[in-house]
Design the sequence.
């Protein structure tokens, strides 16, 4: 790894262009899947999965999550896990009531 | 190794200018996690009521204007791209490019809000708005769908507006030199906020426009 790249790993414009193109491609994919009913009864899970991939791309390449320390990554995990359990527990309550 | 030297150089630059880079960054992320749980509560309401009233939510989503929703998603994704470029540019020392990219982001944000205005206006002129007689005469599921639509896209819209104001302030800072190659944490944190608002929309779009 040469010094030039090591000192500024987040400033390569081309990486942002690729991420943006990928995000737009996923947007077209999710619209196509929904409109053509490609996944039938799995359409909710399918579109939420694509949304999560898009959110992951934004987090990793636009927000540079990979360059953050353990504290930020740990806090993110905690926040997402809290949200997951709140939703899961509420659903188990609604479903088995 | 790459990460270490990068962080070190920033921390070093921060120490020279008296800025606690790491602390400010963690503070911003912490704020974003409270925002995540704030929006999370509304997503929880949406998902539970959707499970209880699937037919009404299905019909409601078909009422939405998919074309405008798709254009708005493209606008917001592109604005995330331009603000990311603005930060990369300032870190490279390209002040002018960074200012252009910040300006683009502001314009995309305003464009998003204008399209949202037309969407809401169309709904309101059709008699669908919170507490309208037409809506109150519908079933529970329809009321819930449209109420959640107005509340969630409305609060998201307010976040876009706050982001536009914040980036405008950053543009002035960059112009005056307060945001520069050696001191870009304020712009970077504003960018984090903007990306978060983008992520919220990434989930709102399929839930209100696509899911059928």
Sequence:
């Amino acid at each position: 790894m040469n010094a030039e790249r090591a000192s500024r790993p987040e400033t390569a414009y081309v990486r942002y262009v690729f991420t943006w193109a990928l995000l737009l491609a996923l947007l077209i994919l999710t619209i196509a899947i929904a409109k053509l009913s490609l996944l039938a009864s799995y359409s909710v899970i399918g579109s939420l999965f694509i949304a999560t991939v898009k959110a992951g791309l934004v987090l990793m390449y636009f927000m540079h999550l990979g360059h953050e320390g353990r504290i930020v990554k740990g806090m993110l995990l905690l926040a997402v896990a809290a949200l997951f359990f709140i939703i899961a527990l509420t659903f188990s309550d609604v479903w088995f009531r | 190794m790459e990460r270490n030297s990068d962080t070190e150089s920033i921390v070093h630059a921060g120490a020279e200018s008296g800025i606690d880079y790491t602390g400010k960054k963690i503070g911003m992320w912490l704020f974003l996690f409270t925002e995540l749980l704030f929006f999370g509560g509304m997503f929880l309401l949406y998902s539970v009521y959707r499970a209880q009233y699937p037919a009404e939510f299905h019909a409601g989503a078909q009422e939405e204007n998919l074309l405008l929703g798709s254009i708005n998603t493209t606008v917001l994704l592109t604005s995330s791209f331009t603000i990311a470029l603005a930060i990369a540019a300032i870190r490279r020392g390209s002040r002018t490019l960074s200012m252009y990219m910040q300006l683009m982001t502001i314009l995309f944000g305003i464009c998003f809000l204008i399209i949202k205005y037309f969407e809401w206006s169309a709904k309101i002129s059709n008699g669908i708005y919170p507490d309208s007689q037409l809506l109150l005469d519908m079933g529970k599921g329809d009321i819930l769908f449209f109420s959640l639509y107005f509340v969630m896209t409305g609060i998201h819209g307010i976040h876009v507006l706050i982001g536009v104001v914040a980036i405008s302030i950053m543009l002035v800072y960059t112009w005056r030199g307060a945001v520069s190659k050696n001191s870009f944490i304020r712009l970077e944190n504003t960018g984090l906020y903007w990306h978060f608002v983008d992520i919220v929309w990434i989930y709102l779009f399929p839930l209100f426009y696509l899911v059928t």
Remarks:
- Chain A has two domains: 1-63, 68-97.
